[in-house]
# Entry
Amino acid sequence: MPEPDDNSSDQYAPETMRARLAKVEERIQSACDRAGRDRDELTLIAVSKTHPPDAIKTLYDEGVGAFGASYVQEWDDKVDEVPDGIEWHFVGHLQSNKARDVVDRVAYVHSVDRRSVMKQLNKRTDSTVDVLLQINIAEQDSKSGVPPEELEGLIDVADDYPNLEIRGLMTLPPHAEDPEDNRDYFRRMRHLFDEASTLLAESDTHSRDGFEHLSMGMTNDFEVAIEEGATMIRLGTALFGPRDYD
Ligand SMILES: *Cc1c(COP(=O)(O)O)cnc(C)c1O
# Structure
């Protein structure tokens, strides 16, 4: 099998894609082994922004079932060219006026962090929407998500929106050259998860049944995230190679 070569102009060649996926699965398995966890507890989400439909199809044919979308327009432009069976996860920053373009097409919206988005998702769905609440765990100015101390308030706000099924928490920590730098953030996410679970048990509108996901871990830090309890990891570069935004 060829080594993944991220600098190759043929970064989407099927054999290159397969080699990257094999490597990723090996690393996931090792992290699960270290943490005493079962691979089945974990969903691998292939974050597809900027990558072409053929590359998505190659991964799908290799058994990757869940894909992430980040920008509504860019996703719309290619969604007709990829397999129907894909389970989509909206992981990008969501504007409330785009909620209608996302509901009923995705398995999960990972990036719910304010009333206006909750309100529109609640209103636009034909049934219910599975959502994760996004936490700005490092309280960075540049990031979406609520700071940890506002999670309780956000759960209160969600009481007004019964069509939302609150299924877990998501975070996007700082880019860390050394993944160990993010271990503490992931650990704090797990504590917040436990707190949120207690709050949901007391809610009149929502319940803690089905509150089971921690979406955390990207290319540079997914192994540490798995060790700290992630149930969904979101990988772009590790699976597709580098992104070209041109
Ligand atoms: C782009 C993106 C990812 C994937 O990032 P990589 O570092 O390429 O794995 C994951 N989550 C979100 C929210 C993203 O926008």
